[in-house]
Amino acid sequence: MKAFTNAKLVFPDRIEDGTVLVEDGKILASGNVLLPKQAEVIDLAGAYLGPGLVDNHCHGYIDPVHRENCRDMASDPEGAARGHLRAGTTSITPSAAYSWTKEAFLNMTRLCRKAIARGDSSIIGIHFEGPFTNPKYGARSENAWTYSREVCDEILDAAGEDLLHCTYAPELPNAPEFEQILRSRGIVMDIGHTELSPEDARRAVANGASVVTHLFDAMGCWRGRDSIAQTGVLQESADAVLLSMPGLMYELICDSRGVHVKPCNAALALRAAGEDNIILITDSADRMDYDPHDFPPEDPHSAMDLRFNERGQLSGSGLVLSAACRNFMRFTGADIRTAFKCASYNPARALRLDGRVGSILPGRDANLLVVNEAFEVQKVYFRGEPVE
Ligand SMILES: [Zn+2]
Q1: Quick check: bond before 300 cis, omega within 30?
Q2: CA of 132 to the centre of ligand 1 (A)
Q3: How far is the CA of 169 from the centre of ligand 1 (A)?
Q4: 110, 158 in Cβ contact below 8 A?
Q5: Contact, 365 vs 348, CB < 8 A?
């Protein structure tokens, strides 16, 4: 048994001084508990002890210093997951993207399922970002797929129960059918890469959509059947339509420059949706094709956690989730407890995994993160064991 003691314990609703007891990779007790005689004591010297982070949206790992350590989810999801694990992410759902070929979807799916079946990896499930999204939104989206029942069944069958959530655009012609398919398979439905109308949003939520994929990023304004010519009303942006709806949780990519989400928009989302409904993600990419040091500081290309493709389009981040927590706190004024909640408890809840991960409550996996008051990672424990 291990006793992590002399810590500020971060629960979803409070911070309290105490101890976490761990046995066989699980949390036995947390709070004001007596130290059992036989426990190995780990004194945390007053640091914050919260749950390991949960990243629901990630395409790869970018090592800011050693380029050879970069990994992409398509060919090495376990390698990418290990990179994020060292930075504090103890649960991750690798994301296949709308711009990938079917073979890349199937390859990542196969590799992830192998790791999940083995049971010793931080990969807890799979995320399909698409493939049925709106080709008008997102980098390289000319590769977005057109819907067919056949290809839909093929990729969903390949992923089976390990596919935990799927991003789609509710305005696409076959979206209502796709919603019924996802619902019947118990897959969490994320809305994203979209220019949906208020009517589409209402139908999607009624059919079970519960998460918004990176709010304020890769979204537009509907100009279709609800256009001003038909309704006499100026159409709102998809971000505003979605933020105004009840019953949704919202992903935010908080990069250091506020490019994916402007600081005030992050604060607006937190105020509007409340701390129960914000999910921090990395949307991390797999590599950089240029050296950020070659650019002047005012150029966004100089940021280590932003990534642009050869056409200059924003194309994912180089974030790790603990860094996203720091940016979120800076942008919104949120405290450490709220940052932990939005990067562990909420994403776990969105995927219905909160009985297993996402908090330091008894019975959960002993995935623990030790940070200082600036949310700088001091130590990571995966199922009770230190991560080196
Ligand atoms: Zn995306």
Answers
A1: no
A2: 12
A3: 11
A4: yes
A5: no
Pairing of strands 2-10, 15-23: antiparallel
Rounded to the nearest whole angstrom, what is the distance from the C-alpha of residue 218 to the centroid of ligand 1? Answer: 7
Which run of H or of E encompasses 322?
Answer: helix 321-332
Question: How confident is the model over 289-325, as pLDDT tens digits?
Answer: 888 889 999 998 999 899 888 888 888 899 999 999 9
Picking from 260, 263, 216, the residue whose alpha carbon sits closest to that of residue 241 is: 216
Q: How far is the CA of 337 from the centre of ligand 1 (A)?
A: 27
CA angle (282, 288, 293) in 5-degree steps: 105
Task: Write the CB contacts of 177 (distance below 8 Å, at least 6 apart in sequence).
Answer: 149
96-136 residue pLDDT tens:
999 999 999 999 999 999 999 999 999 999 999 999 999 88
Domains in the chain (CATH in brackets) are 1-52+358-388 (2.30.40.10), 53-357 (3.20.20.140)
CB 194 within 8 A of CB 170: yes
Q: How far is the CA of 232 from the centre of ligand 1 (A)?
A: 32
> 240 CA distance to ligand 1 centroid (A)?
18
